[in-house]
UniProtKB/TrEMBL annotation:
The keyword Signal applies. This is Lipoprotein. Keywords: Signal. It comes from the Bacteria. The lineage of its organism: Bacteria, Bacillati, Bacillota, Clostridia, Eubacteriales. Residues 1-31 form the signal peptide.
Length: 215
């Protein structure tokens, strides 16, 4: 079965909401941020997004995670023996959820996984990864090192900007976020997002979602 066909199976929308919200919180500090209104305060659509500078097919293949190259989507059975993982039972419904991944026993990232069926786990896929440490990068953008100027130089203006004023953060979204007008639904999303600290425009975290989920 091809990658597109495997990843093209439907993921329950309620589960997609949970996964995306959890991964977003990992970038915007839900657990660490100040108390108060956690709603997005401003969403800005840009009609000037330069699509010629952004290519999701290139970005999804350009992960460096603690020195280890990676790409999305990734079939779990294609990971080499150095990789292990632990499914998060509290963030898992049907064949979709979250898992912690390790390389030679070292924790690497939390990822969204789909098509993850008991007895057929090797056919499951990783489709969503968020990173926020300076020993990782996506598309040449490194958390706590790269700046807004670096992102704009490499990818041009984003297709959308979200402001998280109560947390002192804002987010650039590049690519396709087919969410049926609901922020966290990720059907058909093929996007690269970058979260910045508002006080200095330094990158706080990076994330790629890559799937072609059927209706």
């Amino acid at each position: 079965m091809s990658i597109i066909n495997c990843v093209g199976k439907r993921i329950k929308r309620t589960v997609a909401l949970l996964i995306a919200a959890t991964l977003l919180c990992s970038l915007t500090g839900c657990a660490k941020g100040p108390t108060g209104n956690n709603n997005l305060s401003s969403d800005i659509d840009s009609n000037n997004a330069d699509e010629t500078e952004f290519d999701i097919e290139r970005v999804r293949k350009s992960f460096i995670i603690k020195g280890v190259p990676f790409e999305l989507p990734k079939r779990i059975g294609d990971l080499d023996d150095a990789w292990t993982y632990q499914k998060r039972e509290t963030h898992y419904v049907d064949d979709t959820g979250l898992a912690d991944f390790y390389f030679n026993g070292k924790e690497m990232f939390v990822a969204g996984i789909g098509d993850f069926i008991e007895g057929q786990e090797e056919d499951g896929f990783i489709y969503d990864i968020a990173l926020e440490t300076d020993d990782c990068s996506i598309g040449g953008i490194t958390p706590n090192v790269s700046t807004k100027a670096d992102v704009l130089k490499k990818y041009g203006e984003p297709s959308k900007i979200n402001n998280f004023e109560d947390r002192g953060l804002y987010r650039y979204i590049y690519g396709t976020q087919d969410s049926n007008q609901k922020l966290f639904f990720i059907e058909h999303s093929q996007m690269f997002t970058v979260v910045f600290y508002a006080e200095n425009d330094v990158v706080q975290g990076v994330r790629v979602v890559y799937n072609t989920l059927d209706e």
